[in-house]
Design a protein that fits this description.
By secondary structure, this protein is of the alpha+beta class. It is built from 23 helices and eleven strands. Helix 3 packs antiparallel against helix 4, helix 3 (56-90) runs parallel beside helix 9 (215-236) and helix 20 (492-508) runs antiparallel to helix 21 (514-551).
């Protein structure tokens, strides 16, 4: 009885619910059709289904592509704001207007801060791009360098289990399976990779360099986006050729992302410097190396910048610095295959079997190769500088596509090269600030014009010289910085000059007859004579300047040059 009474109610309720659902579905269908949402929903459903059935590398590539749209929008907006800021700030002034320098520095500062924000927000290769800009200290104005320098110590934030995922993709195994021991906590991290300590199944201690997993996936998209930003910036301030800078950095980053190429560089470096028993390159474990994972011999040593630890180990800084210059000079002048990133983190020192200093070269991702013609011209240029042979300097500079041979000589030796046609400027009457104030406006203008012209010509020389030589110049500046921190204990100029002459002789030696050998000995004798004479002159000049600085008669030029870029010297002189 109860069931008979209850059944119609249940049927009615079910019918009501069904009708309600059909009504809702109908309304939703009409809404979707009326708003033109059918196609987007179909595409979304198809896309979600496609994404679900892809393997992890493909999924990651899809995620990176979608995230790239955000990075593109952020970069374009940043570029547009910076462009407008330059145009609005400088539209009513010229280089000669009063207050131009202050305005220019202010807009440089704002632009650098916006670029910094964009790099930090976008992460990935943008961090590397910002770090690359900081290295361009010979081109970028001081406000850019001071602002972007924080990126030098910036390490990318990585997701959990990323290392395990990469190992599965590269080896089909977990790190704990590939190695007998593997420290999950990295011992070092940088902009492209992090390093873990491990032990192989054969008991060898190794350093495992693991690339951040999405960098290669992001490379082309991020490069395209950064090029848009660079073009926008270059249009408003042509003196800073951001597009050209980016082109160079793109090539460098592509090489650094290939760990197989890095391993190949390491082995070539070891072969090239095998004649120097005090240089060591960690051995590569090829069976544990791929394009994204590099495994090398683990090195126990002291960072070259840790003076206290080096002293406690009983190692001589003079000996270390002498070997360091010789090592890189031989790469430049003998093989042309040059380590382009010799910062202190990549240079370690340990004791050899005799208890002397042995240099260990790490991180061979970034190398520069000089063609034989350029390398020989560079070596002969150094030789001509020592011999004060202006005609030879002009000839070899021309071979390297540089017109201003004298400025190239100054760049290479990192000092003013006085010649008959280029004596040093005579400003001996300016001994302090009060002497500067006593100068007439015409005299001040002449000095300002000199620095402005010098700066412009120096930039032209840097643009003219072969691209590999640019990286080598930065290499020399880094070595110089290490030596300065050690107390300038060796004469870099003499060590490099001797290496240059040896490299030139190897490349141009004509036969082994008595006449050829006699000519070679004569040239070497004259070279050593001039080198010694130049060394004595430099020593006397340094001693004289030291006394004058101590007496307060002249400013400390060494501190000024070390502290300032060419842009700073120019701007401070203009004030």
């Amino acid at each position: 009885m109860w069931n008979k009474l209850r059944a119609p109610s249940l049927f009615k309720a079910a019918s009501t619910t069904s009708l309600y659902r059909r009504s809702i579905n109908t309304k939703i269908s009409k809404f979707i059709r009326s708003r033109g949402l059918v196609a987007p929903l179909v595409l979304f459903t198809a896309g979600a289904g496609t994404y679900y059935y892809q393997d992890e590398p493909t999924r990651r590539q899809l995620r990176v592509t979608l995230q790239g749209v955000n990075r593109l929008i952020r970069s374009v907006i940043t570029g547009a704001i910076v462009t407008l800021d330059y145009k609005i700030t400088l539209h009513d002034v010229t280089d000669e207007s009063a207050g131009y320098t202050e305005r220019l520095n202010a807009v440089h500062k704002r632009a650098a801060e916006r670029i910094l924000w964009c790099c930090l927000k976008n992460g990935g290769l943008y961090i590397k791009f910002g770090q690359g800009l900081v290295i361009m200290n010979h081109i970028l104005p001081r406000p850019y360098l001071e602002t972007l320098v924080v990126l030098q110590d910036k390490v990318l934030t990585r997701g959990p289990h990323e290392v395990e995922t990469l190992f599965r993709e590269e080896f089909g195994k977990l790190p704990s399976e590939v190695f007998r021991e593997f420290d999950e906590e990295p011992i070092a991290a940088a902009s492209l990779a992090q390093v873990h300590k491990a032990v192989t199944h054969t008991g060898d201690e190794v350093a495992v360099k693991v690339q951040y997993i999405d960098l290669q996936d992001r490379f082309l998209g991020d490069m395209f986006t950064m090029r848009i930003l660079a073009v926008l910036l270059g249009k408003v301030y042509p003196k800073l050729d951001f597009a050209d800078i980016l082109k160079e950095l793109k090539g460098n980053m592509a090489r650094e992302l290939d760990f197989v190429a890095e391993a190949t560089n390491a082995e070539k470096c070891a072969r090239d410097l095998s004649h120097l028993p005090y240089v060591y390159v960690p051995k590569v474990h090829w069976n544990l190396t791929t394009k994204k994972i590099l495994t090398t011999e683990f090195i126990h040593g002291v960072k070259i910048s840790n003076k206290q630890a080096l002293a406690e180990a009983g190692l001589s800084l003079h000996d270390i610095d002498n070997k360091l210059v010789r090592c890189f000079a031989d790469q430049i002048f003998h093989s042309g295959h040059v380590h382009a990133d010799p910062h202190p983190g990549n240079l370690y020192v340990r004791k050899d079997k005799q208890g002397k200093a042995e240099l260990v070269l790490l991180d061979h991702g970034l190398y520069e190769y000089m063609e034989a013609t350029e390398r020989i011209a560079l070596a002969n240029m150094f030789k001509a500088i020592v011999l004060k042979d202006e005609e030879a300097m002009r000839l070899h500079a021309h071979t390297m596509n540089v017109d201003e041979w004298h400025l190239l000589a100054c760049c290479l030796t990192q000092k003013y090269v006085a010649t008959k046609s280029n004596p040093p400027p005579d400003w001996r009457k300016i001994k302090n600030k009060s002497d500067w104030k006593k100068l007439s406006e015409q005299e001040k203008k002449e000095i300002r014009d000199y620095f402005e012209d010098l700066h412009s010509r120096m930039l032209d020389v840097m643009k003219q010289m072969p691209k590999p030589l640019m990286l080598i110049m930065r290499n020399l500046n880094t070595i110089r910085s290490i030596h300065r921190d050690h107390g300038n204990l060796v004469n870099r100029y003499i060590i490099m000059a001797r290496s240059a002459v040896e490299g030139a002789e190897k490349s141009t030696r004509q036969g082994h007859g008595l006449l050829s050998i006699a000519r070679s000995y004569k040239e070497r004798f004259m070279f050593e004579y001039h080198l010694k004479l130049d060394s004595i002159r430099s020593w006397l000049l340094v001693k004289a300047l030291t006394v004058l600085v101590w007496l307060g008669r002249v400013p400390n030029f060494e501190e000024t040059l070390n502290r300032n870029s060419p842009q700073d010297i120019e701007l401070k002189t203009l004030n």
